[in-house]
């Protein structure tokens, strides 16, 4: 306590030093705490389900493909896995669904999930109100729904008697079974579902999806039985998969089973690597801050050498001196930690706002109890880290020598500078590592922005309309879109209107198998590629070039020759060296959707980037919407001005045609492009900010060292100048000292950067981890900053008056 009181008095007496140190530490601790909160929420926090280690994500694995490519299951395969396994207490399924909720005459689009009756039991979560789903709810005709807490509040006024009531979804009435707890969300990736409906809806139609073994659309989870190991479960499901492949060779020939811990791998994806890199980068910033503060303490310690020499002379032990100095360091770091936590609140809020891409569970990121404990721990550790070197140095002072060096000497103490020099070298090396990383990401991001997506995203408004399939027949769907396109085409400022699905960069996609006339192969070996469904004028509106043949037109109707178009990648892969125009291909669409006759290829269009600017171009074929009404396409409206200005007119046009049809996912095409590069933009911006902070701290550290050296060597400099040294000689001497330290740090930093840059290879596009331009640029930048930091104290030293200096000394 006596050491603590003395430390506080010392800091109050040296308020300028204390404030500088606290702000430096606040910057490092605050940034580290904010990044930790993100990492904790996304990667470290347990899933909100009991005994989560027994929850597994189950999927198929096509062993004909290289690498691990998880694939969904069909309903028949899911039913067989559920019935034939011996290692799971329950296996449940789910897949995404879009529904329209009608309340008080208003239509509202909602994201939902179709789930098996045992999903919530497998997860181990019970409803907050009402009952759970039952096996009877899976029978055809039983329309049952579970509401999310947020939907229960927003649309039903938190009615306690909601269970058992009926709500209208689309054209059907659904019985509300119950309401899930406020904290419940499943699946965790993607938009939070507003409700969950029983799979009974998938049992209807001419050919229900529950009977289509080749329709792989289900995600599946399972809960292991007590005592069952992962290896036992894999062997069990592999045996089931082998039996199914033998029994159904047309659809299951190439599939085995696989499983992994629920969500934590497949929902995070490459975000895991990015967060780890950012956490490592901010840790390096904290280390630079520690080195900077250690340098400040060494400089301050040299002025207190006489004090501690006197303490040692009158009986203070080394342990007591070390304890006193470490207490001062920890007090400083704790003050910096408090300021850092306050800074972390703002930093975390800003980082979450910068994330225009979806990271699962990021909404749970907060400065909570775990973040506060983390901040306190790193504050104490930081205090010990930057305090131990100065404390060790001061505890080893020889009283007589220290008292002699405490007087004004000619050269000062060399020992007082060695540790300080080493800290400056370390700061420079770490700063270079961060600068190289940020430089590589910046170069990569510039390459991404220069990628041609294959279409023109400028001034295009996109939207979806929820035309109900259970209320309108296919021909009525087509009539609705034709009338809507005609209405929108007359709006002022509209150049062209069409519609298509999937929209590039929208995360919507479907892969459908097909066969080529004249190339007969077994059904199990049919290739599968992405499909597109488009209205006439789509390629012109999107400005996707037509390379050969023609596009779809009014002549391609329900009673005309079935046609299709393909992209250039499809033509290269399946018709190398041939003219694909006039070839015939049969798409294996579901029987309940449309007949799938042989279709004539009538046109070839240019390749587009569908999944992102960095993704590879993939083969794709297109069907006219008139001949394949299977989904609600995205409207694409090209305008001559701001596309957002016609949103209200779009909504009004749809409302006039049908009040029960919601308009949703309204956005510009440029926004989709921006979101597709949001993750590399975020990680580039954040790492660049950390590198800028590191560069600033390194410059301050070098400036502080040289300024301190000038003060310590004032008498020496005065003598040199009195004996004939020119001001340029003094200037050169100080600058040479600074650049020498910077060069040593650069050499060490380049060696470390060459190794660390490889960790970024998976985050780079169009640039290698050993890019010479980046290394040369950041090296020159750091040298320039070091030169600037060295020049100021050197200029101050060169302006000393030798006679005045000798008189004062």
From TrEMBL:
Membrane topology category: Multi-pass membrane protein
Stored Pfam families: FtsX, MacB_PCD
Localization of this protein: Cell membrane
Main location: membrane
Claim: Transmembrane is one of the keywords in the record: yes
Residue stretches spanning the membrane: 21-44, 277-299, 325-349, 369-389, 423-442, 685-711, 741-761, 773-795
Domain ABC3 transporter permease C-terminal: residue ranges: 281-399, 689-802
UniProt key word Membrane: yes
Family note: Belongs to the ABC-4 integral membrane protein family.
Name under which the protein is recorded: Putative permease
Organism encoding this protein: Granulicella arctica
């Amino acid at each position: 306590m006596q050491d603590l009181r003395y430390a506080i008095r010392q800091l109050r007496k040296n308020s300028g030093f204390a404030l500088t140190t606290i702000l430096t530490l606040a910057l490092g601790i605050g940034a580290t705490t904010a990044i930790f909160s993100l990492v904790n929420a996304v990667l470290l926090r347990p899933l909100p389900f009991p005994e989560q280690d027994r929850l597994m994500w189950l999927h198929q694995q096509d062993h004909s493909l290289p690498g691990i490519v998880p694939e969904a299951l069909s309903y028949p395969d899911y039913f067989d896995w559920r019935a034939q396994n011996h290692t799971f207490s329950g296996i449940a399924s789910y897949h995404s669904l879009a529904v329209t909720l009608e309340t008080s005459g208003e239509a509202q689009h909602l994201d939902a999930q179709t789930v098996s009756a045992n999903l919530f039991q497998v997860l181990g979560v019970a409803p907050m109100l009402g009952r759970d789903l039952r096996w009877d709810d899976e029978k055809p005709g039983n329309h049952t729904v579970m509401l999310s807490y947020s939907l229960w509040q927003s649309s039903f006024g938190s009615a306690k008697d909601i269970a058992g009531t009926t709500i209208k979804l689309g054209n059907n009435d659904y019985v509300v079974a119950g309401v899930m707890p406020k904290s419940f969300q499943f699946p965790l990736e993607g938009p939070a579902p507003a409700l969950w409906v029983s799979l009974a809806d998938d049992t209807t139609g001419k050919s229900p999806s529950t009977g289509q073994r080749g329709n792989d659309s289900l995600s599946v989870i399972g809960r292991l039985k007590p005592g069952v190991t992962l290896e036992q479960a894999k062997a069990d499901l592999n045996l089931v998969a082998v039996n199914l492949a033998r029994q159904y060779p047309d659809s299951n020939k190439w599939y085995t089973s696989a499983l992994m811990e629920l969500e934590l791998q497949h929902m995070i994806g490459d975000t895991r690597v990015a967060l780890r890199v950012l956490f490592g980068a901010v840790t390096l910033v904290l280390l630079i801050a520690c080195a900077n503060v250690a340098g400040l303490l060494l400089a301050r310690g040299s002025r207190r050498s006489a004090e501690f020499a006197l303490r040692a002379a009158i009986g203070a032990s080394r342990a007591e001196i070390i304890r006193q100095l470490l207490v001062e360091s920890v007090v400083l770091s704790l003050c910096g930690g408090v300021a850092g936590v306050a800074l972390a609140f703002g930093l975390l809020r800003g980082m979450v706002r910068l994330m225009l891409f979806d990271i699962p569970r990021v909404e749970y990121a907060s400065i909570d109890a775990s973040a506060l404990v983390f901040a306190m721990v790193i504050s104490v550790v930081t205090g010990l880290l930057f305090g131990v070197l100065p404390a060790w140095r001061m505890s080893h002072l020889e009283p007589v020598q220290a008292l002699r060096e405490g007087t004004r000497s000619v050269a000062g103490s060399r020992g007082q500078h060695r540790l300080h020099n080493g800290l400056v070298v370390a700061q420079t090396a770490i700063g270079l590592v961060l600068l190289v990383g940020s430089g590589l990401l910046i170069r990569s991001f510039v390459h991404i922005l220069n990628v041609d997506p294959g279409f023109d995203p400028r001034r295009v408004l996109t939207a979806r309309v929820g035309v109900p399939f259970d209320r309108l027949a296919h021909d009525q769907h087509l009539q609705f879109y034709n009338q809507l396109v005609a209405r929108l085409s007359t709006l002022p400022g509209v150049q062209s209107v069409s519609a298509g699905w999937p929209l590039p960069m929208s995360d919507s996609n479907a892969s459908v198998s097909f066969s080529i006339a004249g190339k007969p192969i077994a059904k199990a070996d049919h290739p599968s590629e992405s499909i597109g469904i488009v209205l006439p004028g789509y390629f012109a509106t999107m400005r996707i070039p037509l390379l050969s043949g023609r596009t779809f037109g009014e002549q391609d109707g329900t009673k005309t020759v079935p046609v299709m178009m393909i992209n250039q990648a499809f033509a290269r892969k399946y018709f190398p060296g041939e003219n694909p125009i006039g070839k015939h291909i049969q798409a294996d669409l579901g029987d309940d959707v449309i007949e799938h006759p042989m279709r004539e290829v009538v046109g070839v269009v240019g390749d587009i980037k569908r999944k992102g600017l960095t993704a590879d171009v993939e083969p794709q074929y297109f069907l006219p919407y008139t001949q394949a009404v299977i989904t609600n396409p995205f409207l694409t409206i090209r305008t001559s001005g701001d596309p957002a200005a016609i949103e209200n007119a779009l909504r009004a046009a749809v409302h006039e045609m049908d009040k029960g049809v919601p308009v949703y996912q309204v956005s510009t095409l440029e926004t989709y492009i921006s979101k597709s590069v949001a993750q590399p933009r975020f990680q580039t911006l954040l790492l660049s900010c950390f590198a800028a902070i590191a560069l600033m701290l390194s410059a301050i550290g070098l400036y502080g060292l040289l300024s301190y050296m000038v003060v310590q060597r004032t008498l020496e400099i005065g003598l040199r100048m009195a004996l004939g040294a020119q001001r340029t000689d003094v200037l050169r001497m100080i600058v040479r000292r600074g650049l020498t330290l910077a060069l040593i740090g650069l050499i060490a930093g380049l060696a470390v950067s060459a190794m660390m840059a490889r960790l970024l290879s998976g985050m780079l596009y169009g640039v290698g981890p050993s890019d010479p331009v980046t290394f040369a640029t950041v090296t020159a930048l750091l040298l320039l900053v070091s030169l600037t930091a060295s020049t100021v104290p050197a200029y101050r030293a060169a302006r000393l008056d030798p006679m005045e200096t000798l008189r004062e000394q």
